[in-house]
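Human: Note token order:
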Amino acid sequence: MTFENPIETPVESAPVDATGQHHYLLDWSEAQLIDWLLERGWPKFRARQILTWIYQKRADSFDAMTDLPKGLRAQLASAFEIFRSVTAAHQKSVDGTEKLLLQLADGGRIECVLLRDGPRRSICVSSQVGCAMGCVFCASGLDGVERNLSRGEILEQMLKLQRLLEPDDRLSHIVMMGMGEPLANLPRVLEALGVAKDSQYGLGISPRRITISTVGLPPAIDKLAESDSPYQLAISLHAPNDELRNRLVPVNKSIGIESIMQAADRYFQRTGRRLTFEYVLLGGLNDSVACAKELVSLLRGRTAMLNVIPYNPVPGLPYETPSPEAIHLFRKTLIDGGINVMFRQRKGDEIQAACGQLRRLREREPQVVGISHTSSE
């Protein structure tokens, strides 16, 4: 499939706050905001108004919150900032996919993606700067992990992608499958998703349409199950046996597929929610009929969906997209084996939509100066 050249928006910059004393509002809970308001003599219902403006009415500044008293708006502007990142790159694909490279306040860079598919408006969000899992075919972890993202930095990605939509359009699905391992930053991820699913003042996205993707960390999968969080879980397998998975996902050497599958079974027993297993299909590596038959043996009898994704090539890495013939035979073997399988259509090839590609492409460029410490980029 061929695409036109991507449309790339120029780098944005923002004014610098001289004091550096602003609180990051997206990191604050409703309870914290209520306490701040009460200390200054404002009624607590103002907190819901403020949050509704940000998450539902898409306000980028306190001045836009027209049903708040001017005095409160002035106090908010002097104490808080809504956004802390600046858009270092914004790319658009002809298939409607859009990707943002965000530069954080400390200079770290992360990626997030908006995918349009019929009526669906799905976003793929990062949880860390970089990734420690070391999947050999993924650009996100080539330079390791720098740090976890805060709750606000996760939410800010969602809000900036939301603002790429038309006013009458809304986000429908969230996948924590961007840069980083979400289960390695589980507390902050759950805090952010709690706001995303909130229908009163948050984004109002159904928990059934929110997915946390993991490379497979059994203790963290157990913690997620024990939290009784109402989200979907996707486990990235990428191989049907340990020998191959150890090559593709080096962290597997200390885990093992059997341990992951046992944790997946415990998750299903605890939550009753169907699991999804992700499988990136790499030409000549894990796309054989033999691999497909092993997958059938591994997944048969489990209440699960297998999501197969043909590889999105990363410049500088030696991995290729499977041939159409290999994809056809792989699919046929799975279906004949009774596996509930979906083959995902690749999107955004020409804008480096796969995780970490755009960040690596821009890594030698200078930092964007003038990170916002006010309200918007």
